[in-house]
Amino acid sequence: MQLVTSTKKMQQLSLLLRRKGKKISFVPTMGALHKGHLSLVKKAKRLGDFVVASIFVNPAQFGPKEDYKKYPRDLRKDKELLQQAGCDLIFAPRVEDIYPEGYLTYVNIDELSNKLEGASRPGHFKGVCTIVAKLFNIVQPDFAIFGQKDAQQAIIIQKMTEDLNFPVRIIVCPTVREKDGLACSSRNSYLNTEERDQAKILYQSLKLGQKMIKAGEKNPLKIIKKIRELINNQKLAKIDYIALTDTQTLEPVRKIKGELLLSLAVKFGKTRLIDNLKICV
Ligand code: AMP
Asked: Which CATH code is given to the segment(s) 186-280?
């Protein structure tokens, strides 16, 4: 497995691979890898001939009061895990090479970026779109693999890929969870024992919503109210949002029908966690 930090070298390598007819699959990450990330690498291996994983904590997608500085970083462990998962190359550029002095160009999708996560984290998706567009140009992948865990991100990246004509197929893989249902996340490492224990309510509450829908509940407000009550029973939980939206427009639904996204963001102490379920009626 190779480790490349130079953007030029990465691009040259990718162009060479493509000229040889190799299909490149790409898994963008911010490192601090867990089994959710590794499931994407395994999918990448099945899809292409050469797997690239990037590790880059992207400052442009963090707000000024967010955890950019303390975001967990462990390149040594990440390397080991990626090697075991069968990754062929790690691309780990330096911040100053991605955003050199005088950097000015950003990619933004207003309509989808100001809802849910974007409403709570202004500028977040502008940072995400910009880095993913740059990585697509550098890595030149045939396939790019994302997680359903960040449902809104996957939708926005799909839209950006279509709108900007990137010749990349976007693949979205299911959320990998811990035994008690908590979605694997690099940020779970911030939780203390009590917070970690209470955080399992997130998946339980999504499942409750799903159960209500399957039982025929048609009023989204009633479902959201029940979920709110359940989460508020945990004394360390502070709800940011709970939403039932259309899976494409991310607009709140008035009536339960078709394909829906039930999503939420909740803080436990200082740690903000997100999760979602796609539900078909
Ligand atoms: P991150 O390192 O948090 O930027 O995530 C990198 C990629 O891994 C994104 O496409 C995420 O959606 C995906 N991912 C993160 N957590 C999980 C999970 N628990 N299951 C599946 N994919 C995940």
From this structure: 3.30.1300.10
